[in-house]
Amino acid sequence: MSENIVILMIGISTLLGAIGLGALLWAVKTGQFDDHKKFTDAVRHDNEEDLQDAVKMDAKRKAYEAKQKAKEEIR
Q1: What phi and psi, each to the nearest 5 degrees, are found at residue 57?
Q2: Could you give the C-alpha distances from 67 to 33, 52, 54, 75, in angstroms and in order?
Q3: Model's pTM, two decimal places?
Q4: What is the pLDDT of residues 20-53, one digit of tens each?
Q5: CB distance 33 to 27 below 8 Å
Q6: For the residues of the chain, what is the DSSP string, one character each?
């Protein structure tokens, strides 16, 4: 291979790497990767009954936290 081809290949690969890095930084900055529970919840609650149980448990947890907060406000 001639020197010109090698220099061209290095330049193009550096440019593509910079574009990829820019895209990654943009995605992180705009919050594209912030949904931490989406796939784990989808796997854990793969049928309707499990999903309904999870919703009930979440409601109970929120009610308990509200009750604890109300107790703290009374003190």
Answers
A1: -65, -40
A2: 33, 23, 20, 13
A3: 0.47
A4: 999 999 999 998 877 767 666 666 666 778 778 8
A5: yes
A6: --HHHHHHHHHHHHHHHHHHHHHHHHHHHTTTT---SHHHHHHHT-SHHHHHHHHHHHHHHHHHHHHHHHHHHH-
